[in-house]
Amino acid sequence: MGKIKIKRKNKRTDPIGSRSKEALQSMDETHQKNVNTALEQLATLNAEENLLGLKKLSTLYSNSDGSPIPFGDSSNDLNRKCIKSASTFLTNQRTDIKQAAINALRCLSAVTDLSLSDSLVEGDVISNLITLIQEYDSNSAQKMDSEEQQCSLKEREKLETLIQAVHLISNLCEVNEKALDILNSSNVIQILWKFINPSVAGIDLAISIAQCFLTISEDNDDILKNLQRSEDEIAKLLSIENANHEIKFLHLNLLSTGLLMNLHQELPIKYLQKTFELIEKVLKLDPRPDFCKLSSQIPLDKESVLSSDNVLLLDRLVDTVNVLTTAFEILTNICSSEEDEEESMEVECDDDSDDMTCASEGPNFNEPEALINSSIYEALVKLNLFQHSCNKTVDLPDNVAEILRNHLDTEVLVRKYQLMRSRSFHFLNNLFLILDESAIGGGDKLYAFWTETATSLVRLAGNSGLSGTEELVEAITAALRGLIGHLVSIDYPALKSTSSDELEVSF
Fold this sequence. Notes:
The structure is a single chain. The protein is mostly helical. 63% of the residues lie in helices and 1% in strands. Strands 1-2 form a two-stranded parallel ribbon. Helix 14 (246-264) runs antiparallel to helix 15 (272-283), helix 14 (246-264) runs parallel beside helix 17 (308-334) and helix 16 (288-297) packs antiparallel against helix 17.
């Protein structure tokens, strides 16, 4: 099969699956009743009732881990009423109400029916979001050293509101071209750019803006022209450091690499050494011990409050998993050149084709160096990225994952970890296509990885009801196809004694 290229604009998969019409109808009836109650609260002139209504919408449109809850088509008119009503609160004077409105709209923007994205754009959501962001003018971007000064509660709330608004902009723009057009014609990019340096308003806002720019700059000439004028400033973000927030700053470093790749359609050689230095640091991070530590310390009560130490540990784990996910996305795209575009697979996008057709034409394993820049090839081998990546494909122990899934504050962490694993498998798929077996470690190591991964796939298929499983299965299957092609190309002896049933698990 062709190389995989991580694409951020995507077609969301339908999480409803094979639920019966009767089950959907029952869900819709309950949903409509609850939403009507929330809408009544939003229609009052009481601010506290408005706040409760917005928070209720957030819970109605998402699971506690943030994943969207699907509803049938009969709910669409009601959903649009929610969008229209919630959007009016984006320009409210109260910061907590603005935040609640943004969160409700983020949940609505993630539901299964993408026609709702048109409603989000055609209504007042985008224009109100732009108005909200325009409140953060140059006078708001006061330079502040977060190491020496503490934000006031009001300042923290304003920054958190901006972070959430940036996330909502990203959600809308990745699925709706009209949202991108409106954004292109506004001055929002110039406003947000002032905050991409973490010394201005903190590293969290800088990361959210860099992630947003990475999303909206994909194949967007207008945004790229804006960013091209700032290439030197983006390049400086590659080297910015902070010992107290090392993982967050590594994340910002890598996001800047992604922006530079979007600007040039590939990673320029002059940024190659620094990029791989960053990736080497990131892939040495091992979150699994902290996962085990957190699972042993959190209360078993699903809604219990975590201790301050556990909150800090949870935050560090989220940061670690997020930066690892970004590292594998960067690596996957580095190893997927533009000339592979026609036969590459867009992750989470346009996956309706038969899996077997993707495996019908294998790469030329006899000359893997020809598939990639020689400097990149040498770096991949020198840094032993195959082994580092294999280490990150390992699942969490069952008991650890179960404990974390069963607490409201930590279940999102498991979902993020599975996303990181899927990204690592996608990178490995590309790696199998460009490295020869000696560079990876020999046929025995490849075959051992194949057997371990195939076993993992069988176990995962048996837990198909878990959130995030579908994408991970797809990623593992892609890696196994690439790996089998590699083993066949070297005529690995053990394959001759492998049954067709054992091989079939890879497809």
